[in-house]
Specification:
The complex is a heterodimer of chains A (about 290) and B (about 325). Chain A is mainly α and about 290 residues long. Chain A contains eleven helices and two strands, in the order H-H-H-H-E-E-H-H-H-H-H-H-H. In chain A, helix 2 packs parallel to helix 4. Classes of the chains: A mainly alpha (about 290), B mainly alpha (about 325). At the A-B interface, helix 3, helix 4, helix 9 and helix 11 of A face helix 4, helix 5, helix 10 and helix 12 of B.
Amino acid sequence: MEQILANGVYLGSQYAMIALGLTLIFALMNVLNFAHGQMYVIGGFVTYTFYGQWGVPFVLALVMSCVTLAILGALIERFLFAPVIKGSAREESTMLLAAGIAFFLDAVILLVFGEKQRGVPKIVDGVFNYDFRLIMPYDRILICVLAILSIVAFIGLMQYTKTGRALRALAQDRTAAQLMGVNVDRYSMIGFALGAMLAGLVGGLLVTITGVNLGMGGPTSIKAFMMVMIGGAGVISGAIWGGIILGFMEAIGLALLYQYGDITYLLIFVSLMIFLAIRPQGLMGKPWG
Amino acid sequence: MMLGFTSKQLVGVGIFLFMIFIGVPLIIGATGRWDFYFTLTSVALLAIASAGVWLTFYIGRINIGQGAFALIGAYVSAILVVKAGWSFWISLPAAGLFAAIVAILIGLPILRLRGVYFAMITLVLTQVVTLTALALPITNGAKGISNIPLPSSISVFGIPILPDFAAMENTKLAFYYTACIIMILTYAALYRLVNSRLGHLCRSMQQNEELASSIGVNISYIRVVIFAISSFFGGLGGAMFGSIAQSVYPSSFQVADSVNFMLNCFLGGLGFVFGPMLGTLVLYFGWDLLFEFGKYQMLIYSTVLIIIIRFLPNGLLSIRFGKGGDK
């Protein structure tokens, strides 16, 4: 039981970070970022290159992942999403763009990093063992703590800084924020960069444990969508709850139903559909997003 | 003019029909690219499923679940043909109807959702159907159903209507014609529907559901009907696909396919009935043509896709009609 709970916390903290980036981008721009999983994979590969290949300290490699993704996110917003949102008759057209970017990033990852599974040396050795009831490698604990710290830092940023206030205003009401003198274009770009950066950071953190490969992008995006739906689209606290809930459901399901294979995911998906049919806006979302 | 069509439209349809039934086989015969038959057949079938997605867009819902209904259709047809010994031609509408019934049952609760919520729940639906196909005994799990026999002959009162596909020399051509005929029927039905009373009601829902409801439009009824029709098309396309490939696996239609169906609609243009057909042709055929570029295929494909959407955010057909589209 302790083991399941620990796994749940571990998975949940990772998931919450992925969902945070996605929900931030959605709240600001009403864009469903299909490329989020690919951004996560790129973050993983950047850390792999710096830390695994060139022997740069891990923290520095993580910073490089964040910087790369932030720049990438800012460029994508400035030169692709912003003009398309302005020019299209229906907002949903951005989905085609997002999917196109997902394909594009996949292609770039394939050409630059290849299709092999990549891993890096462990950052810390050893296993935490509590009476054989709770076994957890130290690097997992470290990554989990780092993830929770990042989430706390992100919430702090959103709550207590000028940028965070501007971003929250933008998410609440774009026009009103503009009337109050918020530079909408600039903060949209910052918000997108921040969301992409979070994806890169998780990628960089997780490469030390699960490694990274080309095929991880799509499934990660789908999981992120699910967490965002559980919590309510565009709500920061909702994304965190969504991540934690999905993390625990997976940990519990995989522990109890491991002999049935994929039945865990089937159950999760079905219960999600039932949940959403009863409560369409998720746990904390505004009705109709 | 005839049936309210302008002469220009009739000429256009005439040229289109001539191209796909006589032009394409001639070109393929001249160039010797026989593999294009399979590509174009796939385009026609995917266009049928995309037409369904387009129809849900028409009531203002983003549908990323068409892969689920295509997979359901493919399995229903395969099971009826292989295990129950039905003729393929009867299993085809049965597959569509089964998909429609599933759509009604699922649609009743989930069609209350809107915007991204509906989009994401349909995305999850694709996963659910794939995983169900893996888990159920009748679908044979990951092994899927293979060796599906080719469509048999059909005759009414001893008069042969359709020949036996297995006895034919050129199965590819037969499948190409079948797929094209079904596609044309689908789009004719779609065009008729959009320009009917129901179509007008759908447009009113696309703009504002509350307003439509307040002036007496039974929105909950219409959206279920539209979703059922949409899924019928999905089941039809999927069943036909399974018959051509002679096999169905849980991975035959995945989330990526569902997303592609949606992209076809976006690319062609949401304001145009024939948008999804063009979108499917460009996306699928373009992907096939780029095969020669080897490892750069994906890069070129996605770059072109991004450029198109960057400069034509309302779809390819918006070039002709200007911004906003001509409904």
